[in-house]
User: Fold this.
Amino acid sequence: MIHGDEIHLYEYTDDIAIVSRTVTGSGLTITKLVSEGESLEDYYLSKVGGENE
Assistant:
C-alpha cells in the first residue's frame, strides 16, 4: 500500500530478502527500511487476554 512517499507492506514482512529484492527489482531505491508492529501472537493475546499483557 502506498501513502505519499511511503510503502506499507502487510505480506512477506518476515522475509526482508523478498521485500528488498522486490523493491529494488522495481527500480526503486531503499533509503530506510523499518519493521514496526506486534507479532500475531502478541496481537491475539492482547485481544483474548493473556500473559503478554
Summary: Residues 8 and 49 are 28 Å apart (CA to CA). The longest strand covers residues 2-3. The mean pLDDT is 79. The radius of gyration is 15 Å.
